[in-house]
Amino acid sequence: MNTEYQRLEAEASEVSRRMTEASAGAALRSPVELAALESELAGLGRRLASLHLGMALVRSAASPELAEREREFVEALPATFHSQGSRTKKVVLPGGVTVALEVRYFHRKKHPTAFDKGRRGLFPALLLLGIQERFPPGVRMRMAMAAALLGSYEEAATMLAGEGIVVCVNTLRKVTSGMGRMLRRLTQQGLLKVVGTAKGRRIVVAMDGGRVRLRERRKGKTKKGRQRFSPQWREPRLFVIYAVDENGRQADDFPPIIDGSLGSCDEFFGLLEAHLSGLGIGEAARVLFVADGAAWIWRRVPKLIKALGLKDGQARQLIDFWHAVEYLGKLAESERLAGSAKKRWLTTQKNRLLRGEIGSVIEELRTLVGPRPAKSQRTWLNYFKTHGLTHRRMDYSVSRDQKTPIGSGAVESAVRRVINLRVKSNATYWLRENAETMIRLRGWIKAGRGEELLRQTTYVTPQLAL
User: Fold this and answer.
1) Which of 34, 340, 388, 405 qualifies as a cystine partner to 394, CB 3.0-4.6 A?
2) The pTM is what?
3) What pLDDT, in 10s, does the model give residues 204-250?
4) DSSP letter assigned to residue 246
5) Residue 461: is its pLDDT beyond 80?
6) CA nearest 292: which of 186, 402, 415?
7) Nearest-angstrom CA–CA distance, 167 and 155
8) Which residues make Cβ contacts (< 8 Å) with residue 407, sequence separation at least 6?
């Protein structure tokens, strides 16, 4: 083996010896001494594991098998690339270990100039191994998870340092943004897939929107030469797809799908359609679409049902029960119902809704507001007429009989956990692409699909390499 392999092997032997000495010579007499030994052995263990990983990388980089896969990869690229010989690339591993790999560099030009160097070139061997930004795939996933789940990049960098992954905030941002770009490319090319099938299952699709403050560019520069921007509140849209069991609870054997977009409503529904098609939603036993009364949702749901080829009776639409109750409360307050009278009236209407007596509810509302309702009262009354009578989106008795949800609590919880607790803040201004990356990463990770995300954003096909 080469000099790099010998260096790693010698250091691994030394670290192993130090671990043996530390554990054999330990005389623990207090919690402080135990904690110190625990920390020392954990650090040495991480370093030893990284040294062995480094040796495996050096062997793989020099193997004929990887060279053959590299040749096939280059031949499959949509453009012609020419070998520029071997270059030394460093890979950073946990525990402070850096490995120097000899890998071939390919460029679009046979003789690139200094200006072209590094702009149109790539290292196929590193791409095949999933190494990007000098980090292996597992380390990059840990970095992305820390950045997405913790409150800030600074907190993530501090936590990672405790795991032996020492990175600065800018590097952490760069790695996270890289995963976000790959996620966008997979989505745009229709290559993003989720594990699972809807065959024979009862599927619930819930949608809602949140809020995030974006940095939107303005003309001109500040006195310090910085780009001017305008902070604007925008609505990121989120959906949750999950299965329910025979008792109406979320099925344990089907991890939910949480994803969303800061793009247009049509882009959002395009992403939703892609996920549902990937699950084979046409073979589902039942599909329930549930949301609040947002017009942008219900204008598109019927078109989505048609595009997915769902049969009559297979798909149902439902207004969130508690949003309907909220409108009942507004109508009661508009007629100055209060105290016990308001409570009794609301209880009666809620029970009627749950029994499926939407006609009785509307008649009661007409009686309440009288022949000359105010503008706001007409709006609330039309809400019940449109969704309750015209489109049958308030058939809560059917949902209860079928043991399916009557509310969109799943997506409202997801909006809070995915959006509000990380990106929504009066004092934080996000670039659009960074906010969307953070929202989507958190969605996949919170849904328990982080490993799926890692596999798809790590494996680079020839079509995605350029």
Assistant:
1) 388
2) 0.89
3) 999 999 999 998 888 878 777 787 888 889 999 999 999 999 988 99
4) T
5) no
6) 415
7) 12
8) 290, 320, 321, 322
